[in-house]
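name: query_chain
kind: protein
chains: 1
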Amino acid sequence: MNDNTVHTTGARAHATAPNGEDIPILVDREGDWFYGDRPIFRKEILETFYQCLRLLQDGRYVLEWQGRLYPIDVADTPFVITRVDRVTNGSEKTYIRLTFKHLAETEILEPETLWVGPENVLYCRVRQGRFPARFSRPAYYQVAQWIEPLDDTRFALRLGQRLYPIAQPQDLTGGGLNGS
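structure:
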């Protein structure tokens, strides 16, 4: 990585183009991408960004492109779950399919990765556990129908006959939002 390529100024990360111009790319809390103040909405660009997305050990997000790392400013996580579907396959195994904002591909929930984050927002890990994903309010309400109490303060997701406890903030020991 070239030290002249990655910069952080205050709370805003930005990249530097080969011509020296700053390229501010950010992802807001709702998972919408922006170039400066302009929304990025072209599907092929967003899919390329998601393919190039990396989460560094220190919690910073970058786009890896042509051997360089370009930091992006992420308010929460670039992965926002917009829909959940409970699916039972032929062998009676039940799982939950996640649909993401801006992505055509879906993913199967790894229920062991569920946790409650700040402001009681539900999260899980996606992309082989490499990234955190936040459940949007509608997706949370969809999955909530399969959540049941374990006791007065703890909850679990029921899939078939199995219960998957949902980690609470005090339970997290490095496996939370940035996985560090």
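note: Residues 94 and 161 are 9 Å apart (CA to CA).
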